[in-house]
């Protein structure tokens, strides 16, 4: 996973327009969490489809970075739903196990 984090960090920083190293550790933790989250959703770590995978991880990190708090929804707090772009990429990159075997 370290290879994914180190190769994705410059892309994420560019996407978020972050200069310097002040937020690097926080961003690395978000990248690691995004990798785990996508694995849980059925998207394998994919360095062969590097551009789309980096985009997906970058979109997750951007969403979490920009929405650190919760959104007030009526009388209770909820987290924001995932944007359509993330959902779309997850569905396209998902590996569905063949249960007929």
UniProtKB/TrEMBL annotation:
The protein's matches in InterPro entries, at most eight in alphabetical order, are given as:
Phage_gp6-like_head-tail, Phage_HK97_gp6-like
Pfam families, alphabetically? Phage_connect_1 (PF05135)
Question: What protein name applies here?
Answer: Head-tail connector protein
């Amino acid at each position: 996973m370290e290879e994914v984090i180190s190769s994705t960090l410059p892309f994420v920083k560019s996407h978020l327009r972050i200069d310097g190293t002040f937020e690097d550790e926080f961003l690395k933790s978000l990248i690691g969490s995004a990798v785990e989250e996508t694995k849980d959703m059925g998207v394998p770590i994919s360095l062969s489809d590097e551009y789309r995978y980096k985009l997906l991880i970058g979109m997750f990190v951007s969403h979490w970075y920009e929405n650190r708090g919760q959104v007030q929804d009526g009388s209770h707090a909820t987290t924001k739903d995932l944007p359509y772009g993330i959902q779309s990429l997850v569905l396209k990159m998902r590996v569905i196990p063949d249960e007929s075997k």
